[in-house]
Write a structure and sequence with these properties.
Elements (H helix, E strand, L loop, with lengths): L1 E6 H9 L6 H8 L7 H15 L6 E5 L8 H12 L1 H24 L4 H19 L5 E4 L5 E5 L1
Parallel strand pairs: 1-2
Antiparallel strand pairs: 3-4
Helix pairs in contact: 1-2, 2-3, 4-5
Length: 151
């Protein structure tokens, strides 16, 4: 497993679609700009080679981005269209509503910080079992909640 401080959703989407993109595309779609370097492009090339050899490395992100502002949205829509077009339509509607709420709160500089914290904590609880036992280090926020897992 290779984990970056980058969007959880973006890394998962690229991991699922790794076969359908070049190493450069995968890197650009999954990583924050600070990580987009020649050296890491070589790493993504290596990851593609290993996958083709049947020894894949799993790409993971550990930052909670707002998924509707990221490349994950297009992956989710494409996948939902194949699985259930009706749900895809509902997803589009929900995402549009989230974007409107985000614009409103950004414009008015008002945030429900407690709601955001609850969302983050719920996401961590959802993902934690997947990484538990694999992690060698789990860093904690001052409030004691885990937020970064290094494998």
């Amino acid at each position: 497993m290779i984990a970056f401080e980058t969007g959880l959703w973006e890394a998962a989407a690229v991991q699922q679609n790794f076969d359908n993109s070049t190493a450069t595309e995968a890197m650009k779609q999954s990583l924050y700009s600070v990580w987009k370097t020649e050296e890491l492009e070589q790493l993504f090339t290596y990851m593609k080679e290993q996958k083709e050899k049947g020894k894949p490395l799993t790409l993971a992100g550990f930052d909670m981005n707002l998924f509707y502002k990221s490349s994950f949205r297009s992956y989710a829509k494409e996948w939902l269209q194949k699985v259930n077009p009706e749900v895809k339509s509902e997803f589009d509607t929900a995402v549009s509503e989230l974007i409107e709420l985000d614009r409103y709160y950004n414009k008015n500089k008002t945030y429900f910080k407690n709601d955001i914290r609850l969302y983050e904590d719920a996401a961590i609880q959802l993902c934690w079992p997947k990484y538990d036992g694999l992690s060698s280090t789990a860093y904690q926020r001052p409030n004691g909640h885990n937020w970064c897992i290094c494998v």
